[in-house]
Specification:
With 89 residues, this protein is of the alpha+beta class. Helices cover 26% and strands 13% of the residues. The chain has one domain. Strand 3 and strand 4 form a beta hairpin.
Length: 89
């Protein structure tokens, strides 16, 4: 028997709840989980990052929709991001 209503709520969300995760920078993943940063702002993250450490969540880019990085650029972006975090502290 078919399940006609499976995923129906995703069609009502912008871009069907898919985007770039601000924590791990995975592209075209479902951003269904909501986490709070230590300053109180909320982020939509993927399932894998919903249980990430608070340091990774605080280091996340708040608006990842403007990031045009693909998988091949993620490593360089994370190195830049960690170096900026070390510089701030």
């Amino acid at each position: 028997m078919a399940k006609n209503n499976r995923g129906k709520a995703l069609y009502k969300q912008p871009s069907r709840a898919r985007g770039t995760c601000p924590v791990c920078l995975a592209t075209r993943t479902k951003l269904l989980e909501t986490v709070k940063k230590s300053d109180g702002t909320q982020l939509q993250v993927c399932k894998r990052c919903s249980h990430a450490a608070t340091t990774r969540i605080d280091a996340a880019v708040a608006n990842s929709s403007t990031i045009a990085f693909r998988r091949k650029h993620k490593k360089a972006f994370h190195q830049l991001q960690t170096s900026l975090l070390q510089y701030r502290t």
